[in-house]
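Re: weekly structure request thread

Next one in the queue (170 aa):
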Amino acid sequence: MRRQFARFVDGLNVVASWVCHGLLVVITSITCLQVFLRFVMNRPTSWSEEVALLCLIWFGMLAIAIGIRRHEHVAISFFRDLLPYPLALTLDFSAQLLTAAFMLVVAVYGQDLVALAGAQLLPASSLSKWWLYAPTVVGGALGAFNAISNVILRELGNAPITAMEPHDAR
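Done, posted below.
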């Protein structure tokens, strides 16, 4: 059961990672197109910067959530590594739970922003402002899910918790 849950969580993050890869391609393509049209053709577009910015926001929020699962965010592990194993484990559990709580707050307030934006349109692209605020909901929910998954799967800190266990506990 645990192995299946870990596969599900990692599969979900692989999908989010591929979305991030696609967004980087879109951002790069739009930016190159805009530079070409502006400086070579002298005919810039009005929508390109806005769409690239939307893609960048989506990329950022998804990347934050993926980073939570992979433990790739900056962490000060110096003090944790000085603590005895039970205290280090408690500290790691606490950090993951606080991260989950923060990401849930981001998702909830992001939902409020989505509702507040309503049917407003972005000026240059005429896309709904929903696209501007929805990444906070999606990224916040995925980040909270990843932090809780790390606790459930006992993958804490900068490495799986088994790496911190004393040698005789293995």
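Residues 2-40 form the longest helix (39 residues). The helical segments are 2-40, 48-70, 78-82, 85-117, 130-152.
Next request, please.
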